[in-house]
Amino acid sequence: xxxxxxxxxxxxxxxxxxxxxxxxxxxxxxxxxxxxxxxxxxxxxxxxxxxxxxxxxxxxxxxxxxxxxxxxxxxxxxxxxxxxxxxxxxxxxxxxxxxxxxxxxxxxxxxxxxxxxxxxxxxxxxxxxxxxxxxxxxxxxxxxxxxxxxxxxxxxxxxxxxxxxxxxxxxxxxxxxxxxxxxxxxxxxxxxxxxxxxxxxxxxxxxxxxxxxxxxxxxxxxxxxxxxxxxxxxxxxxxxxxxxxxxxxxxxxxxxxxxxxxxxxxxxxxxxxxxxxxxxxxxxxxxxxxxxxxxxxxxxxxxxxxxxxxxxxxxxxxxxxxxxxxxxxxxxxxxxxxxxxxxxxxxxxxxxxxxxxxxxxxxxxxxxxxxxxxxxxxxxxxxxxxxxxxxxxxxxxxxxxxxxxxxxxxxxxxxxxxxxxxxxxxxxxxx
Length: 431
Ligand SMILES: Nc1nc2c(c(=O)[nH]1)N[C@H]1C(S)=C(S)[C@@H](COP(=O)(O)O)O[C@H]1N2
Ligand SMILES: [Mo]
Description:
The chain is built from six helices and 24 strands.
């Protein structure tokens, strides 16, 4: 391997690829746990109490894993203000007030991993293959994708199917996302539709299957953390991209560097990261996280806590209508007159109206709502509100989409905690 340890792009990669050097950098056998590493601003503050401590069982420390003392902050290098929900696999959400930008900066795009990111994310030797039920299977480098297909940039929203899971009662197991497993960055890449057309799907094709180079948590070679797919009709939509750049520059390691799918409006799990292969199938895909109850909901409404037979679950397709209040920040103090603002989206549809309430839903005020900058982008909205007096207020926001579907106040419960699109509320102290 020609790469030097100092070129490791993240702490993760450093520990994984250079187990001996990383151990030497972070563990001083005589002085104990140390922080002499070369990682700019890596989260010392939270771990400083541990610095210099002897490590009695040093010789047992597994090679290639990041010490827990550092994991919490250092895995988020290149991210700003994200809240880590889990560090193995890494899952981190963005507080609502940090999602205020019309286009989400790379530093604030959430992270949802099912496994371990690949050790190498080198764009220059990455390949992408398309095969299965196609006339013309092929493999291309990222450079070849760029030169063989039209390169487009689009602002596209990705929301995890489990966003909002934390608000389910009875609770659902899985990452306890509150509202911040959503983002809308600008992605640059080629259209999946163009790539499929060159491959020439056979008439029997109904579904895609997505494969990436991340690893299963068990570390077992060939065991996939996730492999999902979408109906070929969705894959042919012209805002589904195979992306190689994020916000006009390098993609973040945790967001799929160097190549990923972006399937706006559908569960984030369709947007495969570290993408290496798409297979076209003559039947619905059956990879990990595609079957059973994964990314599926009962096909009929059920009562909270109700048990549902497996065969009554169906695959989630479009995400439901939803909105987010990104200003003011919840639990902050504001003046009597304030501009409330945020975003709204509805998978495969547009949002027709956003209304806000400052009186716990008794009356609603229409917000000014922008058109999406392109199909698949969230829509920005704003509304100046005039609080009648000082005190405790809540602002509630409620979006209604082009099919007249409106965000509910009460939760539509389902066993795995998906699709929670209840209204967002922020608490304010009015001066
Ligand atoms: N290869 C791979 N792709 C993946 C995942 C993964 O674990 N591995 N997680 C999926 C899920 S569940 C979501 S919500 C999105 C999150 O994208 P982000 O981490 O860039 O925000 O990536 C999807 N693509
Ligand atoms: Mo997800």
